[in-house]
Amino acid sequence: MSAPFLLMHDYGGFAFPLELSLELTKRRYRLLHVYTSSSGSPTAAFPADTARFASIDIAIPRVQKANFIKRWRAERLYGGKVAEIIRQKKPHVLISANTPLDAQAQIARACDQVNCKFIFWLQDILSMATRSVLSQKFGVAGQLIGRYYHSIEKNLLRDAASIITITDAFAAILANWGIEREKVSVIPNWAPIASIPERDKVNPFSLEYGLADKFVVLYAGTMGMKQSPDIVVTAARALLHHKKIIFVVISDGVGMDHLAEKKARWQLDNMLLLPLQPFERLPDVLASADVGLVLLDPEAGSFCVPSKVWSIYCSARPALLVVPEHNLAARVTKSVDAGIVLPPEKSNELQDSIMYLHSHPQRRCSMGKNGRSYAEVNFRIDHIADQFEQIISSTLRPKGDGYAA
User: Fold this and answer.
1) Lower Cβ count inside 10 Å, N or C end of the chain?
2) Can you give the pTM of this predicted structure?
3) Are residues 39 and 178 in the same domain?
């Protein structure tokens, strides 16, 4: 019997789905990993193809997240290209994550056409995000568009062979939508701990940017408006007179444009804005920090879990979260004492939390160690892959319509 052929689809090309793909190829699977480096997300370092593993970086125009029409066109183009790969390659199972809903619908239809089992890996509840953003920008019209995408997402989830969510909170929302509970599994996200070893603060990255002798508050990852970039501006202005404290933001997109404008307006010399760095530099980037910053606005806390916190854990640095307290990242951080959590309504206290951590190096050290210990226990890729493998096997087993595991 031939080995099952999996297609791992991750729109953003993130590091943790790639780690999962590579682990699954050590088992009985042949695997094709499909993504795009044009999404504006920090992309992992993909290895060369082997007998069991191959990857395809889908070429599309650079996604302009602030231009809704151009973004929609690029995402539709992308979905069509992935759908064509599905029809050509005919995988037995496809796992699809982090995917814009128009593209996800094209992918699901292509799976149906070739009798491929479609597993929806739900990282964010995108229709809720769409409704939140567009209703603020376009009022009633935005709400109507949000309802349209809610219908698309609900139908995709209803028709999926299996669903993997990253938090119990998402599973509860799906239950309220009438999605069958039996086909929903919860597997929290992680960071590839083997690729993020503990490093010294004095390293090539910190030396290159003059950070080795500074107290660094680091934000690294996607910076959209749902990350509330003005929170960084307010704290930077309040701490401008502390010459040894610097805010380093490594990102791109509309949030970075906003920060650049504010930096120039307020002459914030304590704010360093850098583009996304190659994944190979991530351990040194994270090690340059004294504090890892995570931001999420109140409404986004219901449909998004900021995965960058798990990378901060791996780096053995304390996490400073300005996110709703009910969010999974906040709950874990508080429960294991891996940092400080501020609810968004208390974001004006961010500078006070930074000064507390600046003044208490032993607490920073203990929080960082707690985060790293949590990661060492919970981010073992062999254990995580076991859970995915159970879902893959159960998805293949019942029907007997094309492949039996």
Assistant:
1) N
2) 0.93
3) yes
Same domain, 153 and 202: no
How far is it, in rounded angstroms, from Cα 245 to Cα 126?
36
**Structure-token pair, residue 17:** 């789905």
- Residues 230 and 334 placed together within one structural domain of the fold: yes
CB under 8 A, 24+ apart: contacts of 303-306: 303/124, 303/125, 303/126, 303/128, 303/129, 303/132, 304/124, 304/125, 304/129, 304/226, 305/123, 305/124, 305/166, 305/167, 305/189, 305/329, 306/221
Least confident of 6-10, 40-44, 203-207, 352-356: 40-44
| 307 domain residue, yes or no | yes
pLDDT in tens, 286-314: 999 999 999 998 888 778 899 999 999 99
Match 């997109």 to its residue by tokens.
253
pLDDT tens sequence across 337-348: 999 999 999 999
Contact 32, 89 (CB under 8 A): yes
Number of domains composing the chain: 2
